[in-house]
Amino acid sequence: MKRVKDILYLMVLACAMLNCSTKKDNSSSELMNSEIETENNWEYPFNGKTLDGWKKLGGDATYKVEEGMIVGTTATPRDTSNTFLVTKKSYDNFVLEFEVILDLAPNNYHNSGVQVRSHSLPEFNNGLVHGYQVEIDPDTTARSGGIYDEGRRGWVHDLSDNPAAKKAYKLGRWNHFKVVANGTSIKSWLNGVPAANYTDDLDSEGFIGLQVHSTDSENPLNIKWRNIRIKSM
Questions:
Q1: Helices (H), ranges, the chain
Q2: What burial class does residue 62 get, using C-beta atoms within 10 Å of its C-beta: 0-12 exposed, 13-18 middle, 19+ buried?
Q3: Which of 9, 22, 28, 110 is deepest in the core (most CB within 10 A)?
Q4: What beta strand segments (E) does the chain contain?
């Protein structure tokens, strides 16, 4: 009788272990599917090989693809116009992430930014690029991650109320930016540090644009972008 009980106990134990293993496998499978679904929700406007889906506007700076990066190079100081490489597609509510590095430029002005919800319209100053710009500013003003209204109002959130964000930019290194535009809200993060938190209803959609700012440097200066991705909300 005891032997029968022992056998029954072992059978119940084995069954319980099998069910537990099945649940664990199902849980792992569900987690993997969730991760795949999350990754699939991201759009990569730059494929790492060509500039298909983009167009250049503004000044004489140049853009090229190099080792999986978009490289923007300044024009001569005689060109006082800013230059932009912009998406042909418009975006409204989204999460945008990218990494950027600027050449060090001692004693020369070197500045950049990424346009969001921006425009170039014939009826507005002959097509002048205008709209919200997430600033990339390695200058002493330290306003990287702030919001500048390019071609219109100038600074709308210069981070003067956010000393932590003003210290977040890393000179001569890759910097990670995150931008969330949702309704009238535009928020930014720089290397994980919350930066701008701006509310405005002037523009609800528009292109994404990579800026090469005019410079006083006779030697060309580079700006490099990589890992650009965007997720609609």
A1: 2-40, 163-166
A2: middle
A3: 110
A4: 54-58, 62-66, 69-73, 83-87, 94-102, 112-119, 130-136, 147-150, 154-157, 175-182, 185-190, 193-199, 207-212, 222-232
Average of per-residue pLDDT across 99-128: 95
Inter-CA distances, 113 with 12, 105, 108, Å: 65, 16, 17
Q: 143: how many CB neighbours lie within 10 A of its CB?
A: 26
The CATH class, in words, for 54-232 is: mainly beta
Output the pTM of the full model.
Answer: 0.83
Place of tokens 């990569």: 44
Average predicted confidence (pLDDT) for the chain: 88
Give domain limits for the chain: 1-40, 54-232
The residue type of 124 is F
pLDDT at 162 over 90: yes
Taking the CB of residue 61, how many other CB atoms lie within 10 A of it? 25
Q: Which amino acid is at 198?
A: Y
User: 134 with 113: CB under 8 angstroms?
Assistant: yes
Q: Report the candidate in 163, 160, 152, 169 with the shortest Cα–Cα distance to residue 112.
A: 169
* Identity of residue 90: S
